[in-house]
Amino acid sequence: MLRDCGLPVAIVNSGIGGSTTEHSRERFDSDVLNHDPKLVVIMLGANDAAIDVWKNPPATTPRVAKQRYAENLRHFVKTLKARNVKVILMAPPPFRWTAKLKQLYGKPPYDVNDPWGFSAKLAEYCDVVRAVAREEGVPLVDVFKAYQEYDRVDGQSVDDLFSDGMHPNDKGHAIIAELLAPLVEKACK
Fold it and tell me: Are 93 and 161 a contacting pair, CB within 8 Å?
């Protein structure tokens, strides 16, 4: 899509499945800064917000506290801005219940009777990334909100945007690309 807009971009995906902002901060120099980027797009938070109620004994708090999540995001943004690297933050997509996810995560504080119940804690982390984007003056792609808006249209369901209740499918990725591409194009000019 970006090349179709005439942007000769080279993309480095430094994302690692299951990674939190803590993990990402540990490898930020080697996996991001060492590439000498001109623009960095950051979408973290889903793994930070997760409460591993499936563990024995069950976790009762998110993997990364909201305050630390905010500190980590600010660290990324401030470090990149100090190097004159442009930054786009993204609020991650919500989660949706599937049979497997109910089996793993279907315990308090999650509410399996609420279709959005698996996303309640994640919604709080999306508020954090929104606040950091405002405070730092960087663009935000609010995937969480876009998926909610998609769900509000008659005949559409946010469930249609996932492959497994957590990860977007092609249709979900297309929505993300449509939101992100104009900001990348603007940042590259």
Answer: yes
Task: Pick the closest to residue 42 from 53, 51, 33 (CA basis).
Answer: 33
Check if the beta carbon of residue 101 is closer than 8 Å to that of residue 116: no
Cβ atoms of 88 and 141 within 8 Å: the answer is: yes
Q: What is the separation of C-alpha 68 from the centre of its chain, rounded to a whole number of angstroms?
A: 16
Residue 91, CA atoms < 13 Å, CB-side half-sphere: 26
Contact in structure between 14 and 32 (CB atoms under 8 Å):
yes
As a 3-state breakdown, the chain gives helix, strand, coil percent values, each rounded to 5, of: 50, 10, 40
Q: For residue 87, what is the DSSP state?
A: E
The answer, as to whether pTM is greater than 0.85, is: yes
Q: What is the pLDDT of residues 92-104, one digit of tens each?
A: 999 999 999 999 9
Q: Cα separations (Å) of 112 from 59, 96, 101, 188?
A: 17, 10, 10, 43
Query: What is the residue type of 68?
Result: R
Q: Confirm if 171 and 161 have CB atoms less than 8 A apart.
A: yes
All residues at 6 or more sequence positions from 61 whose CB lies less than 8 Å from its CB, including other chains: 51
Reading the block at residue 102, the tokens are 């109910």
CA atoms in the 13 A half-sphere facing the CB of 92: 27
> Cβ distance 126 to 95 under 8 Å?
no
